[in-house]
Design a protein that fits this description.
The complex is a heterodimer of chains A (242) and B (372). Chain A has 2 domains: 1-85 and 161-242, P-loop containing nucleotide triphosphate hydrolases (Rossmann fold); 88-158, no CATH class. Chain A contains 10 helices and 10 strands. With 242 residues, chain A is α/β, with parallel strands linked by helices. Chain A starts with 9 loop residues before the first strand and ends with a helix. With 372 residues, chain B is mostly helical. Chain B has helices at 2-10, 14-34, 37-62, 71-84, 88-92, 105-124, 132-152, 192-216, 218-228, 230-235, 240-266, 276-289, 294-323, 330-348, 357-371; strands spanning 173-174, 177-178, 183-185, 188-190. Chain B is globular. At the A-B interface, helix 2, helix 3 and helix 6 of A face helix 9, helix 10 and helix 15 of B.
């Protein structure tokens, strides 16, 4: 195991999540250091989205601990976690279709009240995603899939998070757009943001991340540096078709 | 409020504003002279409906929570004033209320709004996880429960006087002047319906103002975010539980205010005024006019409140003149026309007669995309 930071920003211990009788996450451990880009890969139904939703507070764990910045998150509601710096880009983007791009971004800053800095951040988002700047008055629902993904990412960044969690950002996008989105993810990581990236596209995710976890039917079966995982036989066979 | 009014007056639209205000102030006199006093009364009812529609617009149009039992809050407001402003309680419980309650209207009004808001939370709390059709069914049930309670709570103790309803409700008084009798102001005789017209006009203006502020506020934007995607909304740091409850409560308060005014105006309430059909009618005003757009909702309210009256006054004489007898009853014709209007609207103006800016743009973009 690689330990980049001695005290991780996020530390999850023995997390279990269940939908009624169905155990979707069966006791996983993971951690993310400050400024680290970590990938969580696995096939459909492995429990990746459930894990992210639990970290964001949208689902309640059956057992286990979530420590974030030295605080126990277990009893903290989803809306308060945003103010603590945890942002989620939900699966399928979840843009507010009948609000404009600008309104979507403003909603991202809902938990903040530093008006002046919100304006500065809006300008930063326009610089980071020039496409969105052109379409700020357009309804988010009328954008292309890739542009909607950009809206979802920019909106999450507007909460000025310390930990950004992305759920399948490449889903349903054209290859060129996927490249573009991943470039942006790398750019954001280079600014020092901690990122947890959930992906089915294992190669892309591991190429961007420094470390990765492989999840299978609710449990983490492999973890390590991205290079190791990319080279490992198990990952090659299961996800990379090699 | 004053600052807002000043802004309105100093904008280029100020001329239109004064024109509208003047027209509205003259409306009861013009209506009275041209159509008769009955139509002023109809205009009074239209404003009660506008208030209801604007309240429901908060729940359905902004927060996206489909409510089919909204008339229950109107009923709660109406019965609040009926119970506290009539001799009913004194007659039903002589030992408890020997002289009757007879609380002044202006004290009951805020209390009734709060009680209605409380009922809104009561409806909202168990339905927080429900959306769309499931929520519609539960709210429909809630509306019926309230009506059935009102209908049957004359036993074991006579709280609501059952289907007979409560009569002899005190008229509304403004500064010790009863609105129930003609008043002479500056040498002009104002009949009761005119007085109520101006009172309701003031309340409607207030409701429009509050609606507008809410829509543009942080709360309004949070409601819209919940309407669009609840999961994403809570991932933005929105406390979806509290905001949904707030939407139910705010909508219910508007309904409660309207109901209290209704009870004072009518002097009589009975459960049959609060049927499911009324809930549907108010929802149709919101949808027909343009969900989420205040001007559209007002238009929908006016049209649907006037439609049955126009029919009643035109269909029978027309048939009498043509056939010498009444073949189609205006009430059944109303439902026919109404259904036809809704179908036509869904086909040709799906966003409503006067859609909100955003909905219009959305449809425009769709059309643009189709033509490309």
């Amino acid at each position: 195991m690689h330990e980049i930071n001695l005290t991780p920003l996020l530390e999850v211990r023995d997390l279990q999540v269940a939908y009624g009788a169905i155990h979707a996450v069966k006791g996983i451990d993971l951690h993310i250091g400050s400024g680290e880009l970590v990938a969580l890969i696995g096939s459909n139904g492995a429990g990746k989205t459930t894990t992210l939703k639990t970290l964001a507070g949208l689902l309640h764990p059956a057992s286990g601990q979530i420590q974030y910045g030295g605080e126990n998150l277990n009893n903290i509601a989803a809306h308060r976690r945003v103010a603590m710096g945890i942002a989620l880009v939900p699966e399928g983007r979840g843009v507010f279709a009948r609000l404009t791009v600008a309104e979507n971004l403003l909603m991202g800053a809902y938990s903040r009240n530093d008006r002046h800095e919100i304006t500065t951040d809006l300008e930063r988002m326009c610089a980071l995603f020039p496409r969105l700047a052109e379409r700020r008055g357009q309804l988010a629902g009328t954008l292309s899939g890739g542009e909607q993904q950009m809206v979802a990412m920019a909106r999450a960044l507007m909460s000025s998070p310390r930990l950004l969690m992305l759920d399948e950002p490449s889903m349903g996008l054209a290859p060129l757009m996927v490249q573009k989105i991943f470039e942006t993810i790398r750019d954001i990581a280079a600014l020092g943001m901690s990122i947890l990236l959930v992906e089915q596209n294992a190669r892309l995710a591991l190429q961007a991340a420094s470390r990765g976890y492989v999840m299978e039917s609710g449990a983490i079966t492999l973890s390590g540096a991205s290079g190791e995982l990319l080279g490992s036989d198990a990952v090659q066979r299961a996800y990379l078709g090699g | 409020m004053l600052g807002y009014a000043m802004k309105l007056l100093t904008q280029p639209t100020r001329f239109a504003f004064w024109l509208l205000l003047g027209a509205l102030l003259l409306l009861p006199f013009v209506t009275d002279a041209l159509l008769g006093r009955g139509w002023v009364r109809i205009a009074d009812f239209a404003m009660l409906y506008i208030m209801l529609a604007l309240g429901l617009n908060i729940v359905v149009g902004l927060a996206g929570l489909l409510d089919l039992g909204y008339i229950a809050f109107f009923a709660v407001g109406a019965y609040c004033y009926a119970l506290t402003g009539s001799p009913h309680l004194a007659l039903a419980f002589p030992s408890l209320f020997p002289g009757g309650v007879h609380l002044p209207f202006w004290i009951v009004l805020p209390l009734a709004a709060l009680v209605a808001g409380g009922f809104g939370v009561l409806l909202g709390a168990p339905t927080l996880r429900l959306r769309g059709d499931y929520l519609a069914i539960v709210t429909l049930g809630f509306g019926e429960i309230i009506r059935i309670f009102l209908n049957n709570l004359n036993a074991p103790f006579n709280l609501t006087n059952g289907p007979q309803g409560i009569s002899r409700i005190d008229p509304i008084k403004v500064a010790d002047v009863s609105l129930n009798a003609s008043q002479e102001i500056f040498g002009i005789t104002l009949p009761s319906v005119h007085l109520y017209f101006y009172l309701f006009l003031a309340f409607t203006a207030l409701v429009i103002f509050v609606s507008q502020r809410l829509e543009k506020s942080r709360i309004g934007r949070a409601w819209m975010a919940i309407r669009e995607d609840e999961i994403a909304a809570s991932a933005m740091g929105i406390n979806t539980r509290n905001l949904k409850l707030l939407a139910f409560a705010m909508g219910a308060m508007f309904g409660g205010v309207s109901g209290t005014l209704f009870a004072g105006f009518q002097g009589f309430v009975s459960p049959e005024s609060f049927s499911l059909m009324e809930s549907i009618m108010v929802l149709c005003m919101v949808v027909l006019g343009g969900m989420g757009n205040i001007a559209g909702v007002i238009l929908g309210g006016v049209l649907l409140a006037l439609l049955p009256e126009v029919l009643r006054h035109s269909v029978v004489p027309l048939q009498q003149a043509l056939f010498g007898k009444t073949i189609v009853d205006p009430e059944s014709l109303r439902m026919l026309l109404f259904g036809g209007a809704l179908i036509a609207m869904m086909l040709y103006r799906p966003a409503g007669l006067w859609p909100s800016r955003v909905r219009r743009r959305e449809l425009d973009t769709d059309e643009a995309a189709e033509t490309v």
